[in-house]
Every structure is written in C-alpha cells, then in structure tokens.
Amino acid sequence: MQNLGHVTKVINICNRKFILHILKLDNGCFIIISENSEKIGSMLAAISTKIPTTVSIIPDRNDPFFSQLLSKQVSSTINGICITSVYLLKKLDTETVKILITDIMKIIKNA
Questions:
Q1: What is the 3-state secondary structure (H, E, C) of the chain?
Q2: Nearest 10 degrees: Cα torsion 25, 85, 37, 14
Q3: Distance between CA atoms of residues 27 and 76, nearest Å
Q4: What is the pLDDT of residues 35-86, one digit of tens each?
Q5: Which of 41, 50, 70, 80 is 20 to 30 A from 30 via CA?
Q6: With 60 as the cut, is the pLDDT of residue 1 above it?
Q7: Rounded to whole angstroms, how far apart are CA atoms 13 and 62?
Q8: Can you tell me the distance from the alpha carbon of 59 to that of 31, in angstroms, rounded to the nearest whole number?
Q9: CB 95, CB 12: distance < 8 Å
Q10: pTM
Q11: Hey, how many other C-beta atoms are within 10 angstroms of the C-beta on 63?
C-alpha cells in the first residue's frame, strides 16, 4: 500500500514477521520496523555527510548494528536524514539483515 510517500509492508522471513512503515519526505525519511506487532523500539538518527553520522536516541538491546547500518545506508542513498525505530524480539541473523535491507532500499529508491 502506498499513499503520499508512505509505504506499509509486511515481510515474512524464516518464520518471523516484520512490519515495515516508511514515510519518505523531501529531505529524509522515517523508517519503522517492528517484529510481530506494531511497537516503537530503538531509535537512531543518521544524516548524510562525507561520512554518515549517527546518533542513538534510544539504544537497541537486541541488535544495535542493524539499526546503525540501515540508517547510514538510507541517509547516504537519499542524501538526507534518516530516523529509524526498530523493535526486535531477538537478534537478526545475517541473511535476515540482507533481505530486510534489500527490500527497504528497493522501496526507498522507488518511492
């Protein structure tokens, strides 16, 4: 479903359900990823500079690497600000990270 720069998608990977919301704006985007239910999780902001800068607003206890990687990559791609909220029940494996980031980057590039 897509409406005015807002995309909602459910991604099922290895018996885990991820609910994805992306709100794309002129100078950045908000990305919310939550597992199984719609919840606010860790929050991280990234801004595109020569070297993308990130700030953790609410640290992620399960997988801080994923939030940081996602925010940096998206902010660099859109040349703007990316604010992410990630709620996970447990740490992500490498394959799940690849699938999520690939799907999110496709949405970002096409929105």
A1: CEECCEEEEEEEECCEEEEEEEEEECCEEEEEEEECCCCCCEEEEEECCCCCEEEEEECCCCCHHHHHHHHHHHHHHHCCEEEEEEECCCCCCHHHHHHHHHHHHHHHHHC
A2: 100
A3: 12
A4: 999 999 999 999 988 887 889 999 888 777 899 999 999 999 999 999 999 9
A5: 50
A6: no
A7: 17
A8: 16
A9: no
A10: 0.89
A11: 19
Task: Locate 85 and state its tokens.
Answer: 């909220």
Q: What does the radius of gyration of the chain's CA atoms come to, in whole angstroms?
A: 13
Are the beta carbons of 96 and 57 closer than 8 angstroms? no
Q: What whole-number distance in Å separates Cα of residue 35 and Cα of residue 52?
A: 26
pLDDT tens-digit readout, 93-111: 999 999 999 999 999 988 6
Residue listed under structure tokens 């799907």: 103
